[in-house]
Design goal:
There is one protein chain. The chain has three helices and no strands. It is mainly α and 88 residues long. It folds into two domains: 48 residues; 28 residues, no CATH class. The longest helix has 15 residues.
Length: 88
């Protein structure tokens, strides 16, 4: 089987930590990337969940608050406010 080269740019600190992980796991980074690529091809998806957990907007608590507020508005329990022009 012929080989092809894949070049990836990443933060130097991340690469150093990834190299250390691979070494601890008994493989090199090339093997780890090949495992990832084969899993993507086999599963036809990224083999792990990608989330926006760092953004507090998407937290379960905030999403529940937004749902509650929407339910209140739909039930006619909202208050209409005038928009404030911030340029004045």
């Amino acid at each position: 089987m012929s080989q092809s080269l894949l070049t990836v740019r990443m933060d130097e600190n991340i690469k150093r930590r990834f190299d250390a992980f691979c070494n601890d796991a008994g493989m090199n980074p090339s093997v780890a990337v090949n495992l990832f690529v084969r899993a993507v091809i086999r599963e036809k998806r990224i083999p792990f969940e990608i989330t926006g957990n760092d953004d507090p907007f998407y937290s379960a608590k905030n999403q529940a608050r937004l749902r509650e507020a929407m339910e209140q508005l739909e039930a006619g329990k909202g208050t209409i406010h005038e928009l404030i022009d911030t340029d004045e």
